[in-house]
Structure formats: C-alpha cells, structure tokens
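Work Package 3 (structural annotation) set out to generate three-dimensional models for the target panel prioritized at the project kickoff. During this period the team completed the workflow that converts sequence records into discrete structure tokens, so that structures can be stored uniformly alongside our sequence database. As a representative example, we reproduce one entry of 178 residues exactly as it appears in the project archive.
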Amino acid sequence: MSLPHQTLHETTARGKGFFRALLLGSAIPLGLWLLFSGATKLFNPASFLRAVLDYGLLPDALAWLTAMLLPFIEIVCGLCLITGRARPSAAFITGLLGLVFVIAQIQAQVRGLDIACGCFELLGRESIGPRSIARAAILSIWAFTVLLATRSDPRRTPHTPSPTHLAATAVPTPAQQG
C-alpha cells in the first residue's frame, strides 16, 4: 500500500527538519569544546605561546598576538554557538580556524617537527600527528556543517531593521504627500 504524495512529502520534510535540528543541536557541544579549548589556553598562556612559536610559521610578535587573541576568539565563538547569537559567523570562524590548524599541523609534520599541537594545554603535551590532525579536520567539518544547517534553517529570521532605518526608508503614502 503506497502513501499519498502529500503524506510522503510531509514525512520527508519532517525528516529534514529532524536532521537540521540535530545539526543545530550539535552546535552546543561544539561550543563547549571551544570554551574548554580556549580556557585551557588562558590558564597556561606561556605553554600555548611556546606551541605557537614551535610551528615556526609566524614572526615572534605575530605569534605572541595569536597566542593572546586565539583563546578569546575560541571562547567567544563557543559562547555564540551555544547561545545561538551570531551562530553562522561563529561556525564560519571556527571552521576556518580548524582548517588553518589542519594546514599548520600538516606542514609541521612534513618538515619533521616533533612539537606539541597546543590544543588542550591543561591536559598535557600532545605531539602533532594523525590523531590531532584528524581532530582538527573533524572540528572544521563539524563547524561548516553547523554553518550550513544554520543558514538553511527556515526559522532563522533575517536582521530586523531598526525603527530609525524604517523611518528613513519609508515611502510616504498618498495621504502624507498632500
């Protein structure tokens, strides 16, 4: 016995809605991961700075700036992913950070460097390798998946213009014109 077309369509739509909700819900654990990662770097800034310098990609001043700002960027992105505020931007930034980290680790492996990945400083030193590269790749893919789910969410509303903007762009009615 076949289902009527409308019922089949509704079932498919519900399935897509569930999948989208699952993806959007995964933003919360991703945000928690970023909060933890950023916090561990904040609690051990010297160790994280050493890890950034060991990659040998940045001049000392830029490495220092990166080591000081990155934990805060991770924490802000984590909070945005958890709360839903600016979630698409946070997911995009997180995805890019993960991608940059994958590239940085691969180049360090190719150069034969035996260095700490700098991921979770409080948990001890973890050398870069297939496991840390895979973790960064999963983080990046996860973030971009959340971004796509967020951007295609039908409940997402575009930015609501301010009353001032509405007043400035309002077209006068015929009664107002004359």
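The chain has one domain: 20-153.
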